[in-house]
UniProtKB/TrEMBL annotation:
Domain Zinc finger PHD-type, chain residue ranges per copy: 47-97
MF GO annotations: transcription cis-regulatory region binding; zinc ion binding
Name the UniProt record assigns to this protein: Zinc finger PHD-type domain-containing protein
Keywords linked to the UniProt accession: Membrane, Metal-binding, Transmembrane, Transmembrane helix, Zinc, Zinc-finger
Residue stretches of biased makeup (Basic and acidic residues): 23-35
Region (Disordered): 1-35
SUPFAM superfamilies: FYVE/PHD zinc finger (SSF57903)
GO cellular component, one term: Set1C/COMPASS complex
Bilayer-spanning residue ranges: 293-310
Amino acid sequence: MSEDIEFSDKNEDSSSMTPQDKQMNETDSSKQLETERYEKKNVEAGNCYCGKDRNLNIIELLCANCTRWFHESCIGYQLGKLVPFLTNYVFLCKNCSPTGLETFKKSQAQTFQMCITAIANLQQTSSKEGTNKTMFSKDKEIIPYLEYHWEALTTTSRRVTTSWHVTVTKALIKDIHILFVFEDHPTDGHMYGLINSDLTHIKPNYEAMIKGGTLKVTDMGIQHVPVSGGVKSRNAKRKFFGDVGAQGKKGRGVDLGTPKLPAHGYPLDHPFNKDGYRYLLAEPDPHAPFRQVFITYTLIIIIPRLYFFIV
């Protein structure tokens, strides 16, 4: 009897769900399946085309599909300015790309991602020099590194003012005990380091990109999700009914389109000036059609009348 009651309750719950709730559940389940498929495929099978191990002293990219690391020198794609330990990119090797060509896309980096990359490179440089530092000064080391390598770290244009220093400080403080560790040094001031000093773990979070819808798992492998057209940015100006063209001074509508002219190349109507008078041609237009016919007709009609008037 209790089993029948439980079964009826489940039927009532499923029947009470709206179509929107069902669609959301189906979307969540599909994303979960895609993530599980990706995690099953996330098995290390060697690195790079050359088969050599990782080298933390050079730029390496992680393929979103086969999860193998590839050296910059082995990649044929023109990558542009980069630094090691980037996390704001999507890369597909030529073995995983549907076109057979490598694809690479660097996105706008968040401030905490830039800080992770900066501290990781400072730590690797210190390890190579033999000092083995793990804590670095925000004002003397982290911010100067970000300023020097700005174009390589993000696609955002370089800041003109130094107000972004405050943003860096907020990002570091916000993720203390999550991503960063903090130490107050008597001479160097605020010092920050990575909570996980193993630099081999720094990589793009492709799983989060799949869950967020930026990437999609298909039978052909990982693919970019195309951005739908018509999406307006925050700075896009709203248009209202009746707006024509761009707005010039004093709110006048400026038509940016080129006026269409007839085949003979001159406008059919003459323009007006500001006083309301129409401009007329001071001399005959040599390009006007049927000009000779008009002149002949004028001579035939007007000259006899003038002769009759004089006589």
